[in-house]
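Progress narrative, work stream C.
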Amino acid sequence: MSSSQNNDSDERFALGLVFALITLVVLSVLWFGAYKGIHGAKAAKGGVVAAKLQPGASGAVLGGTASAGSAAATGAGDAAAQAGAAAGASASAASGAAAQAGAAADDAARVLIENGIVKFYFATAKADLAPGANEALVDVVAGVKAGQRAVISGYTDSTGDAEKNAELAKQRAFAVRDALVALGVAEDKLDLKKPEAVENAGNNAEARRVEVVLAK
């Protein structure tokens, strides 16, 4: 009996040990499988996140670059427009200044000598001789002293008050006469012609001139 009981005990112990080993093996397999599954899932999730982040990051960078490029292009366009406007304003200002300078030059008193004719141009509504008048009359003075006569012809505008225009033209002719007398020319050697009206002169300098020419 004792031997039989011992055998039964040994068999139960062996069986228990076998079941324990089997259980340990099964648990080990289950744990390893679960570990692999969890690790694989994490890796897959990390890959998906990385994949999502990469296009997103690229998109952000590209979007930023595109926005920067658009802003730069807009800025360049605005700068070009401003430069064009500034250039147009400068051109307009230069044109206006040139026009004003031309008008001022046309209105200024001056004296010219063309083909032996001394031409005095007067400022608007004035009878003052231009600087250099005496030098311009040197040949006229020499001609009169040589026996010639000096003919003084005034011109006036045909528009406006005829009497005022004629009076101003006369005063301008007298200014030239007085200059010649001051240079030593006898008054009886001078011929003053009646002022002539210049048609369609408007504010033209040709209607504000006096000419001196030698005649025999």
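Work stream C, second folded protein:
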Amino acid sequence: MPNASPRAPRTKTKPATKRKTITVPAIEKTSIVKFVRLLPATELPRYTHVPGTGTPHPYRDPRGHSFNRKPVNPKALNEDRWAECRSYLLGLDLFNLGFYWEAHDEWERLWRQSGPDSMVGKFLKGLVKLAAAGIKVREESIHGVRRHAASAGEVFADVAAETDLERFCGLKFEDLQFAADRAAQLVYKPDLQAGRPLRVFPYVLTPEPMPLM
């Protein structure tokens, strides 16, 4: 009887693995939609200041974009009337457009006027820290980015716990904490053109409802 031809080895079929569904927070989806300025009639600086890169200091240098323009102290931010606060909205526009030094400057003055120890002041401190993280990205200081972003996240978590609110001054705490966490985790491109405003974070801070200005 002739020898039977050898059988091909059986291959084990692996059970199909289920794909994980990744939920993208609403704040990150905003990066793919058209950005709408809150104060479209306001003139923007001709560059963004990045310390240590040769850009003129906005106030001290005669070449600065705000030289001889004394900063005006804004009115304090009111939690219930945030949509009427020009300084707050301007800071959001500047942040979302990549003017991180200018956003930091605007929000810091508002923070001082609103009372650093008030609930609004604590909230603004978180935004100041988030803008500082953006500045550190432009300075290519990843340690500074992570330090300021982590501090911003802690501030937002504390204010959320103290107020027991979902949204504050138009912004969701969940989105703000995600923004801070994301800022600390990202890898950023080096050698960005000094002075050119660039959004380095994959989201924009959009208050709701949108104010009518």
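Helices lie at 26-29, 86-96, 100-114, 119-138, 142-163, 173-185. No further action is required on this item.
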